[in-house]
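Here is an idea for our session: we take a single protein and study its fold together. Once you have written the record down, we can walk along the chain together.
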Amino acid sequence: MDATEKVAYGFCFLLLALLPLIKLFKTRRGGNGGGMRLPPGPWRLPVVGNLHQVMMGGQLVHRTMADLARRFDAGAPLLSLRLGEVPVVVASSAAAAREIMSKHDAKFATRPWSPTVRVQMVDGEGLGFAPYGALWRQLRKITVVELLSARRVRSFRRVREEEVGRLVGAVAAAQPGEAVNVSERIAVLIADVAVRTIIGDRFERREEFLEAAAEWVKIMSGFSLGDLFPSSRLASFVSGTVRRAKANHRKNFELMDCALRQHEVRRTAATTGVADEEEDLIDVLLRIQKEGGLEVPLTMGIIKAVIRDLFGAGSETSANTLQWAMSELARNPRVMTKAQDELRGSLRGKRTVTEDDLAGLKYLKLVIKETLRLHPVVPLLLPRECHETCKVAGYDVPKGTTVLVNAWAICRDPRHWEDAETFEPERFEDSSIDSKGTDFEYIPFGAGRRMCPGMAFAHASMELALSSLLYHFDWELPGGIPPNNLDMAEEMGVTIRRKNDLYLTPIVRVPLQSA
């Protein structure tokens, strides 16, 4: 939470305490009673509920919620909170997550629509936040079968290899001893890969696109005052929630229009038709739109929303995971050296790393796996809404409750992970645990109907980029900073990114061009 948001929260607490919202609180509170056995939770204040504990506690929300869960029954499987007007249940155990995303998956398959989400979806709903129903099922099928299938991911191999080559070249061009902004380089790489797969070319307004995507990630967190007090115009005004959401929505869709025009110009200039294996993702969506026969027509608004979701999810998750991986490797030189030894021993002086080289790199895959355990990019998996009262872990979850799965807490649960706070890729060496949504102690991509469909796409980019950075360069912290002193502060949004950019000093070990 930035300083402006903290001031807004404090000011709104003061004003809300003076307003006759107690009546509203009492009225809404009645819906959660009725003799139900609700999950345990901390004491609440009138009107604000648990906001003072969750939002003003000095930690990021996923950490605070994990701490609160540990206070009840030595780690209650479910935690009951009220954040302003919003009833919330948080799952902090693998067992509870399994019930929500497997046993009762259909009852928790829809998304809550906050004021921010409503603004962002006004012109078209994307896969990420579309309510569970015909449109969502249609978009899910299109995404899994057409947009992010294994065949489609393989078709973009050349794009990934070219852009990673540009990344390596840019890092190699740094002056000896000069620290490189690794965060910035990775963000540019992933953005260019994502945009080229979407429109077939680098976007001429890339920097604006990155800024708009970063803003979208921040405002979609669901923890602004306007989202937590949806009936209060005062809360919306003080926090600026709707204003920010509208401005960001206009900017995103204006950029989408520009990207579509750039795509159209490129296709018009082409002298031949587009082969199936050469289709970019806009080609695919426009082809499906033209073919018709869909239960819900694919409007241009929906296409733009899908593009926004693909770019936001693809760029944020991959870029943030790579930044955290490089951060953990810089903090753990033993692990970095072991990964580099595997790479250099396997490639034996090759000029570049290609995707053909990745299959045998077992330890590198463990590094990424452990990074996703310690730093799941969406620590509180995208919220779900209970649309039918049911029992989870022996507790009643009322209809209309917002349900959060704390993947960050689950992936650090000492009941499942020895030395849970330690970065140790070797823990996965003899383990069958994977991230495909069946091992609920490890759910960096979620599980069930709402599981992220882009896992293969993300891994393809991350593995090639990380292997290339480790193969060609040794890395040191600038200014002789001890590894244990590396800043690992987080910044909150839908995803968790580094609060401050990561700077490392590269030392070329395997030149990009052979002698």
The domain at 3-508 is CATH 1.10.630.10 (Cytochrome p450).
